[in-house]
Fold this protein.
Amino acid sequence: MIRDLLATVLLAVALCFLNGCGVSARQIQAQTATAVANSANASLPILVGRYRLEGDRAIAEATDRAGAEAAVAAVQQKWTPVWKSWETLRLAHGAWAALLEKGDVGLAAALSALGDAYCGLLKVWPGDVPAIPLSVVRCEP
């Protein structure tokens, strides 16, 4: 009985592939875009929390207003590349998602831009940004 059930399932899967009922490359990219967005949305609060913590510590460790302002400016300067990279990633993902919705032919370029943006973010803030499920994105150390 189990053998017959397995044979039926395998036959159904085979017929599905022969008839083209598998998911399309565009559907796979749409699912991946959702996973990338979820990863980014999960990591943003971590980055914001660390940024605020560093700012709070800088203020707490200062002995006067001028020292606090200088310390906060240093924290802001340190984090500027992170926020610029984050914005680049956000824009690249948005372009990718928009092209997926339209079915545009520029998907490869958008995906490449997304990979570049993600790798740029990893360079300025390694370790806290989760991996994105794209095999085409390979960041060089």
About this structure: The helical segments are 2-19, 25-61, 65-102, 107-124. Residues 24-124 form one domain. The chain is about 80% helix and 0% strand. The CA atoms of residues 59 and 67 lie 8 Å apart.
